[in-house]
Amino acid sequence: MDTAIIKKLPFGRLFNFLKTTINVLLDINWNNISSKVAISQVTSEPTYYSIVVYAGTISGSTVYATADYWTYGFFGWRQVNPEDARDRSRIRLNTPQMNTLTSAESTDVIIHEFGYALSLRHNDNSGASVMKEYELTTYGSPQQTDKDHLKQKWGN
Questions:
Q1: InterPro entries, from UniProt (predicted)?
Q2: 2-150, which class in CATH?
Q3: How far apart are CA 77 and CA 138, in angstroms?
Q4: How far apart are CA 101 and CA 51, in angstroms?
Q5: pLDDT per residue over 95-135, tens digit each?
Q6: Residue 97's closest CA among 142, 65, 127?
Q7: Three-class SS of residue 13?
Q8: Taking the domains of the chain in order of start, what are their residue ranges?
């Protein structure tokens, strides 16, 4: 699954941090785990197999970030369930909430959301994982459990 990242980021305190973090994600985090998953940054928006990253205020929400999923058809874009086939994942970073985190916490929130975009789910079993549901981690990269789950989903 070749995936392109489209950044649509506003100005503000989070911008440079996000730019750096997304580059780190490309270099060391989710790439090189499965030969079927390759993430690269592009400048124009492809219709298929993309992860679009937005930062701004998610009105009325106290979450740090959220991911949702879309497919493209005859009538345009349609939102689908996490387990459905999709053409695009969208990550929305909630700037007011992200601004309350340390750099290490923000990095793991973004890594967690990219995990969703790559079809991973919460992992609340024992062991280290950036995909924990109620635990704010500071690992800085996917853990072995996360890597194993990515390989189970996409192959070696």
A1: MetalloPept_cat_dom_sf
A2: alpha beta
A3: 35
A4: 23
A5: 899 989 998 898 899 899 988 888 888 988 878 999 999 88
A6: 65
A7: helix
A8: 2-150
